């Protein structure tokens, strides 16, 4: 499937605001991929398809997850929208013909993050946070940081997510906490060495 065909299919499946968000994420991902010497085509495709399952209902996300034999922990069972990344990777493979694991992983982990994220995964995660229509306290600082230090920007993004979810009394996925802590430990190790 060509990128043009993917866009046409996505435009028909996503709400107009979500489709515009997707195009904005592609633009942000291109900037970050150029800055961090990441494969531009992979960044474009990962960004384009990152929310391909976003409009699925909780029931459909759980159903596709079960059919694809995805692990569903207690938190995602209660908050099934967290599955739009893993399910999105399944949809990207099955409906859009994406076969590259790097792209599928970037889609899969763009919501919760994980320990040991690749540069591409970090780019898709951050591009989603900093696209031009995002407007929340600290977004300008995060945009600037993303162009200076990818890992520091990831820590800032994870911290913002954790702080926000805690403020509304939500469940914080352990993958997000573990990913943040792993990056901070890595920075501490660098300073020691």
UniProtKB/TrEMBL annotation:
Keywords: Hydrolase, Iron, Metal-binding, Nucleotide-binding. This is bis(5'-nucleosyl)-tetraphosphatase (symmetrical). It is an enzyme of class 3 (hydrolase). InterPro entries: Diverse_Catalytic_Enzymes (IPR051094), HD/PDEase_dom (IPR003607), HD_domain (IPR006674), HDIG_dom (IPR006675), YqeK (IPR005249). It catalyses: P(1),P(4)-bis(5'-adenosyl) tetraphosphate + H2O = 2 ADP + 2 H(+). The keyword Membrane does not apply. PANTHER family: BIS(5'-NUCLEOSYL)-TETRAPHOSPHATASE, SYMMETRICAL (PTHR35795:SF1), SLR1885 PROTEIN (PTHR35795). SMART domains: HDc. GO terms for molecular function: bis(5'-nucleosyl)-tetraphosphatase (symmetrical) activity; metal ion binding; nucleotide binding. It comes from the Bacteria. Its EC number is 3.6.1.41.
